[in-house]
Design brief:
Helix content is 50%, strand content 0%. The chain has 282 residues and is an all-alpha fold. It folds into three domains: 69 residues, no CATH class; 66 residues; 135 residues, no CATH class. The chain is elongated and about 65 Å long. The N and C termini lie far apart (75 Å). 24% of the residues are buried.
Length: 282
């Protein structure tokens, strides 16, 4: 049984707004066409009131068969692709209300489930404002430490990623990942840094391997690459290893590179320069 339309969305109103939106159209538009025009709410009401095929027939428009442009579920790749389109021209991370006003509520909901605004604002290099419109508090080192102590209290070993998720602390796990890395926070709270993966296998990304690949990737640079630069260069696994083992602040210091992102080095990180950078300094 279909859900009834929300109050205010009568059949007559849906038809009237569709006729205005579709004026001059030669076929039924795609879901993304509605999104781009800021009419996702209208498209949602179409779904609740019979579906697009029915309305296309009522308005005498051909309904083309289209292959889905995205995976049927919200995954990182889909969120990233939609954000690249939506965030063009933005100078700050949009608030919840701004996402919804642009017809991007589903995107905003997916962001909240997949790491939170902190993760995605950081990836796109946009400042995350602490607005009253629903944005979460920023992940500071003090907040991360306080929430971590609540999670690890009484434990003898550092939680796995899956255990964080089971505790409903996915956002905290992501903040650890981006603000120093697993090894850094484990040592800071008095735990032995994990040396094996969550499946029990010995880590493949040793410190020596990370250093060697970073030195090759960063050759000729003076600044630390952003996450997007790692991904664009096909270095997502290297970036993951960097974040899990000591963190970007540590490795940037190791290579003598300046971090230009909005957060500074994690507290307690030591500015140890690599042999290559020491030779340059001399």
């Amino acid at each position: 049984m279909r859900s009834p339309s929300k109050p205010g969305w009568t059949q007559a109103r849906i038809r009237r707004e569709l006729e205005e939106f579709l004026r001059g159209a030669t076929e039924w538009p795609s879901y993304r066409d509605f999104q781009r025009a800021g009419r996702q709410k209208l498209r949602d009401e179409v779904t609740r009131s019979g579906g697009p095929r029915l309305w296309a027939k009522r308005l005498k428009l051909p309904y083309p068969e289209r292959k889905p442009g995205y995976a049927p579920v919200w995954i990182d790749e889909r969120v990233r692709a939609e954000l690249e389109e939506f965030l063009q021209g933005w100078t700050h991370w949009p608030s919840r209300l701004e996402f919804e006003a642009a017809g991007r509520k589903l995107l905003r909901d997916a962001i909240r489930r997949l790491g939170g605004p902190e993760r995605w604002a950081s990836e796109f290099g946009l400042p995350l404002q602490n607005l009253k419109s629903g944005s979460k508090l920023a992940w500071t080192d003090e907040r991360i430490e306080a929430e971590l102590r609540g999670v690890v209290d009484g434990r003898d070993t550092w939680p796995t990623r899956r255990e964080f998720e089971q505790l409903g602390s996915f956002g905290l796990a992501t903040a650890v990942y981006h603000h120093g890395g697993t090894a850094y926070w484990a040592r800071r709270l008095g735990f032995q840094a994990p040396t094996r993966t969550g499946m029990g296998r010995r880590r493949l990304w040793t410190d020596e391997r990370i250093r060697a690949e970073l030195e090759e990737f960063c050759r000729g640079r003076t600044t630390w690459p952003t996450e997007r630069e790692f991904l664009a260069a096909g270095k997502s696994r290297l970036y993951t290893a960097v974040c899990h083992y000591s963190g970007p602040a540590h490795w940037a210091a190791e290579l003598g590179l300046v971090r230009t992102r909005r957060y500074g080095p994690a507290p307690g990180s030591r500015p140890i320069r690599s042999s290559r950078s020491q030779a340059v300094a001399r």
